[in-house]
From TrEMBL:
Matching SMART domains: PGAM
Organism: Spirosoma flavum
PROSITE patterns: PROKAR_LIPOPROTEIN
Name listed for the protein in its UniProt record: SixA phosphatase family protein
Domain of life: Bacteria
Gene3D superfamilies reported for this sequence: Phosphoglycerate mutase-like
InterPro entries found in the cross-reference section: His_Pase_superF_clade-1, His_PPase_superfam
Length: 168
């Protein structure tokens, strides 16, 4: 009986300890300011660069808002790695934060908007140094790593960039 109790305890400990990696990006460059706009030619190049950057990172889930530009940003990666894109509501950001917080031991991509990606990172426990994503900033790639231990949770935040697009 003691052996069984130890086994159950070890199973519980191993499932309580996990690391989840969340990549958060803003959609790529868009044609115009309307909500239904497609990506611009530079945006399609950036979306391909995102696929190149994340293709070998073990992405298990891809989440985008229901807008074309977020879906088009994620599509090259989704196609390359064979992962279906799942939509989430753009607001409130708590919806995607809660969903991602229920994921353990996986690697996730979240594609959002300039006014939501920092909020999502903060909701996951990260502490970004920047206060705002400027309207012309499309190259931010944030990595949030959530480590859940037996007695504590820690979060690391790594801001990087991807897909340097040279103007024509």
């Amino acid at each position: 009986m003691r052996l069984f109790a130890c086994f159950v305890f070890l199973i519980g400990v191993s499932t309580a300890c996990s690391s989840t990696t969340v990549y958060i990006v803003r959609h790529a460059e868009k044609m115009n300011e309307t909500d239904t706009t497609d990506l611009s030619p530079a945006g399609y190049v950036r979306a391909a660069a995102l696929a190149d950057t994340l293709a070998n990172r073990g992405i298990d889930s891809i989440f985008t808002t229901p807008y074309y530009r977020t879906q088009q940003t994620a599509q090259p990666l989704a196609k390359r790695i064979g992962v279906q894109v799942t939509a989430y509501p753009a607001k409130p950001t708590e919806a995607i934060v809660d969903r991602v917080n229920r994921i353990h031991g996986k690697t996730v991509l979240v594609v959002g908007h300039s006014n939501t990606i920092l909020e999502i990172a903060r909701g996951l426990g990260a502490k970004p140094a920047i206060a705002k994503i400027e309207s012309g900033d499309f190259d931010n790639l944030f990595r949030v790593r959530i480590h859940r231990g037996l007695f504590r949770r820690s979060v690391t935040f790594l801001p990087t960039t991807y897909g340097q697009i040279t103007p024509p």
